[in-house]
Amino acid sequence: KFSYQQRMGFGSGNPTGKIPLGLKRKGLRIVVTGGAGFVGSHLVDRLMARGDSVIVVDNFFTGRKENVMHHFGNPNFELIRHDVVEPLLLEVDQIYHLACPASPTNVVGTLNMLGLAKRVGARFLLTSTSEVYGDPLQHPQKETYWGNVNPIGVRSCYDEGKRTAETLTMDYHRGAGVEVRIARIFNTYGPRMCIDDGRVVSNFVAQALRKEPLTVYGDGKQTRSFQYVSDLVEGLMRLMEGEHVGPFNLGNPGEFTMLELAEVVQETIDPNAKIEFRANTEDDPHKRKPDIGRAKELLGWEPKVSLRKGLPLMVSDFRQRIFGDHKEGGT
Ligand code: NAD
Ligand code: UDP
Ligand code: UDP
Could you give the ipTM of this predicted complex? Predict the structure, then answer.
């Protein structure tokens, strides 16, 4: 068995194993689970552009082949249809673990990928979530906050699954010496986002394009902080290449109520879009905003794309996917 440093060719001269971004070094073999999904496919684009060999492992549960099709035929790219709940044997240097069935099987998939990292001495990055903070009693949320999650609530399967995934990740780190990284991702949007998974940004954008009313749940005064996908991918790569385990909040501190978000969507797509109020789901977090001080200081990272700049960048993609080549939705 080799350690991650040994595999990377670092001796004692570089005990941190840090590979500065942009530095010339031999291409890495990187597996991205969930790489055919929204965030994963953008990450794959960056890794491929950097000259690494990328293996995407995806069962296409929510991901789509179209998201990575432009890499087909490139010898550095490989796509494996595989459910991470089943064991997987590969030889790789880094594992970005994004695959996440929103069910307890999330835990099994994470365990398998940690087992793989342990066997081959790869560095493992878990994409956890701001949902580990539950309905937070601290605002904004710092990484040191332990969260406020209802273990038997309607949302708890996802929240507790990710919390357990974090626990397993730290146990493999402490117990088996696996090099790990943990990102806590806040609400992220951008091109290739699932159109119909019910998230608020995709709902509002699709609704405005289809000339349907924007469905605001509850009184619309609850807040979220929305991050553009390219900012997230930059943060994930800095975290993977850096020397800190984390957890790190990766999110945009710009905080919006759902009514404010609806206004930005109106400004961007259709000023005449109507708003319709609907009952909210149970245990919906009242507010959420990342404290990104730790990521700023230790990763030198902060988001660059504001909501007003980022939203138009996803609208053209949604228009294309909803209307095909027709221009039914206007310009
Ligand atoms: P996504 O659904 O687009 O991507 C997940 C991918 O994993 C999909 O391609 C899906 O087919 C694949 N997948 C699911 N179960 C699998 C399994 N058992 N085996 C193999 N592949 C499987 O979601 P995303 O928004 O790109 O999220 C990526 C990661 O980031 C997830 O772990 C998610 O929990 C985390 N995250 C995302 C956000 C966000 O706002 N997008 C926020 C917090 C955390
Ligand atoms: N595993 C895997 N690929 C590997 C090594 C392990 O999928 O290359 C899976 C393995 O099947 C097990 C899990 O990862 O279910 C945890 O592996 P580990 O070796 O840590 O635990 P053990 O098998 O000793 O219980
Ligand atoms: N929401 C909404 N209208 C929708 C979908 C969601 O008002 O059509 C609200 C939802 O109640 C929540 C917020 O938007 O308060 C964010 O929901 P999402 O599912 O996008 O993210 P999460 O709750 O996981 O942060």
Answer: 0.97
